[in-house]
Design brief:
Order of helices and strands: EEEHEHEHEHHHHHEHEH
CATH architecture: 3-Layer(aba) Sandwich
Helix content: 25-40%
Distance between the termini: 36 Å
Number of domains: 1
Largest sheet: 8 strands, mixed
Shape: globular
Radius of gyration: 18 Å
CATH superfamily: Alpha/Beta hydrolase fold, catalytic domain
Length: 301
């Protein structure tokens, strides 16, 4: 695939596309600390086969996009608590990165598919740039804000995932294996884990840009900088579908329904056999769902 760069002020955002130009524009927004390659090529191709022109991109501080440095690096979870240093960018800046990709592709608007933190970015885009969004599909999603984080995030799962990733040697192979173990933990325990696919994504990810816990902390803390958009989700008017996995180790399954109640007309679903990653057996269902969402796009003057 050919890597392109979009510009948001002094930040460069790496992106690539699938499908024919002129198809229904669909922007894929990745979650915390993960690179765009974790949107599987097979899923992107499946979406392209359904008539979408698909773009996936690296959030700032990830992959081949612009990286930052923290003056006071700390453990990522410290970003949720008072006293942690503010990052050099805001949540609104991350939202504008996706808009910059749309601008580079000359898309006046697009359907958005966001995963985890990416689902919050998708919702934030509809708040700050409502005319740029046609529909939203959010996966492994939850209400955001401090109280909601405490209510719907499974902190035990996060701690367990950190434990699962420990003990690997400080080598390239060890760092790839760490990503594999994180992916294994994030997957549904009730569905087969595709270790070969996870290792391929982990290897590509490590080769592009080794994992940096400082990036994790900065992305997590970005929501503290600037306006709290979680209070404005009721302003969203585009068709919105929020999906959680029944076996998500990080997010309680009812979180999508709780968030959907705050957005006019939004719907929620729970996918059996899904964790905090989208297993291959769920790709056709998700692709069909997004295609159905696209048909709900209202006509605009």
């Amino acid at each position: 695939m050919t890597i392109h760069l979009a510009g948001n002020k002094d930040v460069r955002i790496a992106y690539e596309t699938f499908g024919a130009a002129g198809g229904e524009p669909l922007l894929l927004i990745m979650g915390l600390d993960f690179q765009m390659v974790w949107w599987p090529d097979g899923l992107c191709t499946m979406l392209a086969d359904r008539g979408f022109h698909v773009a996936r991109f690296d959030n700032r501080d990830a992959g081949l996009s612009t990286h930052f440095v923290s003056d006071e690096p700390r453990r990522p979870m410290s970003a949720l608590f008072r006293g942690a240093p503010d990052p050099p960018y805001s949540f609104a800046d991350m939202i504008d990165d996706g808009v910059a990709v749309m601008d580079a592709l000359e898309w006046d608007s697009a359907h958005l598919l966001g995963g985890s933190l990416g689902s919050a970015i998708a919702l934030g885009t509809a708040i700050l740039h409502p005319r740029r969004v046609r529909t939203i599909t959010g996966v492994y999603t939850m209400p955001w804000g401090k109280l909601d984080t405490l209510r719907y995030l499974r902190f035990g799962g996060i701690v367990s995932s950190m434990r699962a990733a420990r003990g690997q040697p400080d080598t390239d192979e060890g760092k790839v294996q760490t990503l594999v173990e994180i992916a294994r933990f994030m997957s549904s325990s009730k569905s087969p884990f595709d270790e070969d696919a996870a290792r391929e994504a982990a290897t590509i990810s490590h080769q592009r840009a080794p994992r940096d816990l400082g990036s994790t902390q900065r992305q997590m803390a970005a929501g503290r900088v600037g306006e709290d958009l979680s209070k404005r989700v009721g302003e969203i008017t585009v068709p919105t579908l929020l999906i959680n996995g029944a076996d998500d180790p990080f997010v309680r399954p009812g979180a999508a329904a709780a968030l959907a109640k705050r957005i006019p007309g939004a719907r929620s679903e729970i996918y059996p056999g899904m964790g905090h990653l989208i297993a291959e057996h769920l790709w056709p269902r998700l692709a069909d769902t997004i295609a159905a969402q696209a048909r709900l796009t209202p006509r605009r003057a």
